[in-house]
Every structure is written in structure tokens, then in C-alpha cells.
Amino acid sequence: MTSSFSNLSLAEPLARAVAEMGYESMTPIQAQAIPVVLTGQDVMGAAQTGTGKTAAFSLPLLQRLLKHENSSTSPARHPVRALVLLPTRELADQVAQQIALYSKYTKLRSTVVFGGMDMKPQTLELKKGVEVLVATPGRLLDHIEAKNAVLNQVEYVVLDEADRMLDIGFLPDLQRILSYLPKQRTTLLFSATFSPEIKRLASSYLQNPITIEVARPNETASTVEQRFYSAGDDDKRRAIHQVLKTRGIKQAFIFVNSKLGCGRLARSLEREGLKTAALHGDKSQDERLKALEAFKQGEVDLLVCTDVAARGLDIKDVPAVFNFDVPFNAEDYVHRIGRTGRAGASGLAVTLVSGSDARLVGDIEKLIKKKIELEAIEYDDDRPKERINDGRRAWREGADSNDPRSAGSAHRREAREPREPREGREPRDYRGFRPATVSRDPFFAKPYEPSVSDAAPAWEAAAKVPARSGISANIKPKRKVAALFKAVPATEPTSQS
User: Fold this and answer.
1) Which of 131, 49, 40 is nearest to 88 (CA)?
2) Are 228 and 168 contained in the same domain?
3) SS3 of 159, please?
4) Confidence band (pLDDT; 50, 70, 90) for 430?
């Protein structure tokens, strides 16, 4: 049973902000974590995604930092006192927006730094002084090395989506960042799963943490309807159209395993008449934020994304999630479908399974400890009876013999002679072909007979030259060459007297 925020005795500025946001009752993770964090104890929290973890750590942190609030313009009076680390840019931006809303009636300052954007505006904000800093690990290290961020007065550090940070290789960065922090601090670790790696991380950096679990690790939300449909690779787009139509779904996330597949699928769905945007790691930060904003505003119906968007995206009222590809990592399945059915709302998770996905589906079964039944999806019979598909031979389905068009086609097929084998085949007899009529003149049928009186051609007459005596005009004279030896003149015989 959830309790009311009014029971927390929050400070008036925080209580007013919470009331304006329309929050009345706390979620289970909030009801259990907030009182513990208010006491200053370390917390190791596990909750299914989408249950309100941001408020679970933000509100008690802000409550305890109110003693430091001041209106001074000096940056020295606003050192970083709370550090929130997150794995992705989208999640960091989202958490920062939530914290800004909670603290808007206080004098506490907050900002966010993440990669993919120019450091200069972020540096200006840091130089002004902030009490709450939201960051991704890589970009925070950049600012630390540039002397833009000093963390020696941090009292609270939050590791949100810690399992994801370990998955994408942030452990060395986390260790470096934590080495800059004071030993005396409150550390809060939130994760969707309690893997052995998470437990080792907690044992290294948390001191006697209070463990809070509001759901079994890797358990999927009970508000999400999970369906697994058998669909070949060529039928998956058709399956998406069918589910959207039969369920009357207006918006959905569609998850794929690769950036290349993400872009291709988004373009294909766009050509098929669905307003679609792609979200993956090769998109610039500006493009990713614009895609998310367009989806939130209803300008985009389908957001095709890789697992970069599977963690932490808190978009309200997303009715469905499609797994176009079964995830390689079974834990990613939990995070993907956690994008729907958030905060008690109902949602639909559809996974399209091809013949090569049996092992991956088995891994999901083991993780969620539920038997998965594959269903055959029923398509509306809206295909034409005859069509040429992608340049291949025409295919026909159940032609109606009573259809005059079908009868005509059959009659034409019967009228055709059977095709002979290609080798040794005679030239085709194109029936119905009529060559043009040619007039027959007997004059042109006679053989050529030269006339005796015909004069010689002009070119032959022009070529004639005066003949030299004794030599034919057609004989070329010999070319004169130098003699190597002088000829000996013949001697006349002398007469003897």
C-alpha cells in the first residue's frame, strides 16, 4: 500500500513543487527509500524500471541540502554537494529536468553535463556554482581534468542504472570519479538487477547499505501484457501493422539490435505510411533530443531505437513496446518492456520471434521464470489475389473460378503453347504478327547486267597518266638504291693481228 507525500513532512518549497506536478501517492520504491535516505544511510535499491526511482533519491537529497541554500552570487558559496551519475545522455537530461522541477522554489542550483555537445556552455554553468550536478561519467571526467568541476565537498553520490553503466564499460571511469570524492559521504546505488558485479561494486563503495527491493530482481511489471508472436523476418513489419491496427495503438517503441537495422526499419515504416523516427548511437545529441521531443508531442507515432534508449527514458503513456529483434541479453528484455506500463498504467509488450531466436527466448524464460508460449498472429486477408512482388514471378492465391478475370487468365494460359526447353529451342512463332506488305517490281528481281556503252568511272579516268614507252602505267618503277660494290665494266676483246 502506498502512502501520501504529505506524510513525509517535506519542506514547503519541495512539497509545493510535488503538488504542482500532480503527485499524491508514493510508489513502493519511493515509500521505502525516501525515509531511509533522509536519515543519511547508504542505500542499495532494486526496483523494476519505471517505478519512480528519480523522485526516490532526488527529494530526500534536496531536503537535506536545503541547509546549504543561499542567494549569494559567489560560485564559492555553491560547491557541488550532490553528484548523480547516469549511463546515457538521454537519461541524464531527463533526471536533470526532474530535479530542476523539484527544486524550482528553492535557491539550490543544478545543472547537467554529458557528451556529444560543446563543453563551453557546460563550463560556464559549472563556473557559476551548482549544488546538484547530474552527469555521465565520460564527460564528467573531461570537466574534472579541465579543472571545471571540483568534487571535494560532495556529500551525496547517486549511481543510477548502475547495472547499465557496468554493461557499457564505465567501471574504470566510476572508480576514477569516486576516488575524487570525500570518504565521508552518503552513497545511493539503484539498479534494476542485483548481479554479482553490482554486489561487488556495492561492497567496495557502500558502507553498511540498507537493501531495498520492491520487486524480485529481473521481474517484469505486472501491468505489462507480454505477447510472443511467431513471425519470419519478412513478415515482422506486417505483424507490427496488424497489432497496431487490431489493438488501436497510436504510439509505440520498436527495439532492434543494431544501428543499421534501426535506420533501415525506420525508413521502411516511414514509406509504409507511419510517422517514424530513429534513435540510435550514431545520431547526434541534437537529433536524439529532437526525436524524443517529437515523440512526446505526438508528432511521431513510432520511435525505432536500439538499447541506447531502453534505459531510463521516462515518457508517459506509451501504450506498447515492440521487440522487432529478440534482445541478445535477456536482461535487456526487462528494460525494454519497462518503457510501457509505467507508474501503474497498463501496457503491451510484443516480441516477434523468428526461427533462429529459440535460444534467446529460452534465456528470457529463465530470467523472468515464466513459461513463454509462442502464438501465431492472424493477419487480415487484405493482399490482392495477384501481384508481382519485388520483380519475382507472379504468385496467385486461391483464384476464384467464378471470377471472370480469373477465367480469362486461365483461358489465355490454355491458349499458349507449352514452353520448350531452352536448349535447341526453335525461334518463337509470334502469333498475330503481320509483316508490312512490300510491292514486288520485276525489274528489281533481275540480275545485274553491265551495259557495253557505259563510260568508265570518273575516278578511273582521272587516275590515268601518260604511259611511258615500253612500260605499263600500272607497273611501279623500282626504287633506286645505292650500290655497295662498283660494277666492273666489261672489256671488249682485242683483235689480234
Assistant:
1) 49
2) no
3) strand
4) very low
Contact call for residues 320 and 252 (beta carbons, < 8 A): yes
The Cα–Cα gap between 117 and 110 comes to: 18
State pLDDT tens for residues 445-474: 666 666 555 555 555 555 555 555 555 555
Structure confidence at residue 25 (pLDDT)? 82
Q: Is residue 56 part of a domain?
A: yes
Rounded CA-CA distance 395/386 in Å is 6
Phi, psi of 174 (to 5 degrees): -60, -40
Mean pLDDT across 275-300: 83
Residue 81 CA to residue 130 CA, distance in Å, equals 8
Residues 150, 294: one domain? Answer: no
Are 299 and 199 in a shared domain?
no
Asked if 56 and 182 sit in the same domain, the reply is yes
Number of domains observed in the structure of the chain? 2
CATH number assigned to the domain comprising residue 342: 3.40.50.300
What is this structure's pTM? 0.56
The domain boundary, picked from 172, 187, 213, lies at 213
Domain end point (choices 376, 404, 422) = 376
Write down the residue that cell numbers 638504291 correspond to.
Answer: 481
The model's pLDDT over 328-371, given as tens digits with 9 standing for 90+, comes to: 888 788 878 877 876 566 789 999 999 888 889 988 888 888 88
Q: Round to whole Å and give the CA distance between 51 and 310.
A: 15
Domain holding 304, by residue range, is: 224-376
Tell me if 426 is assigned to some domain.
no
Q: Give pLDDT tens digits for 440-453.
A: 666 666 666 665 55
CB distance 83 to 156 below 8 Å = yes
**Bridge partners of residue 233, in order along the sequence:** none
CA 487, 489, 490, 496: dihedral to nearest 10 degrees?
A: -150
